Amino acid sequence: MKKIISTTKAPGAIGPYSQAVEAGNTLYISGQVPINPQTGKVDAQGITEQTEQVMKNIEAILTEAGYNFQDVVKSTCLLSDMANFAAMNQVYGKSYPENPPARAAFAVKELPLGVLIEIETIAVK
User: Fold this and answer.
1) 36 forms bridges with which residues in the sheet?
2) Cβ(67)–Cβ(60) below 8 Å
3) Class assignment of domain 2-124?
4) 102-107 and 72-79 as β-strands: parallel, antiparallel, unpaired?
5) Which residues contact 51 (CB under 8 A, 6 or more apart)?
6) CA angle at residue 96 from 94 to 99, to 5 degrees?
7) Each residue of 83-114: pLDDT tens digit?
8) pLDDT (tens digit per residue) in 68-91
9) How many C-beta neighbours within 10 Å does residue 62 have?
10) 26 pairs with which residues across the strands?
């Protein structure tokens, strides 16, 4: 059985999808972009600030569902430009100081709202 996870502490879905879905002991978090949930806008400009906002959004959804960053087993990072990889990696790594999850990182042609980064996450209890 699946359970839909939603919190106002992360941006609402901008399409026909859920912020996250829990199935059994696994949480699937939809790709998060750097929308500030308080303003509903992309306030952050550079890759460092945008990645920080994305990680805050992921943390809010994890918390709402009763998970934390230690439960994350897989991330997929989508970047608008691989030149931003090192800066993204530095911010991303702060959430996973030990036993980081498996991860893939790709450069894509475009991301929603013209953002620089989107990260989707899978966590397991």
Assistant:
1) 41
2) no
3) alpha beta
4) parallel
5) 34, 87, 88, 91, 92, 117
6) 150
7) 999 999 999 999 999 999 999 999 999 999 99
8) 999 999 999 999 999 999 999 999
9) 24
10) 23, 124
Quote the CA–CA distance of 58 and 30 in Å, as a whole number. 9
Q: Give dist(CA 79, CA 31) in Å, integer.
A: 12
The neighbour count for residue 66, using CB atoms within 10 Å, is: 12
Distance CA 18, CA 102 (A): 23
Alpha helices by DSSP H, listed for 1-125, are 47-64, 85-94
pLDDT reading at 15 higher than 90: no
Sheet of 26-32, strands arranged across: 2-5, 20-23, 26-32, 117-124, 72-79, 102-107
What backbone torsions phi and psi does residue 28 show, to the nearest 5 degrees? -110, 110
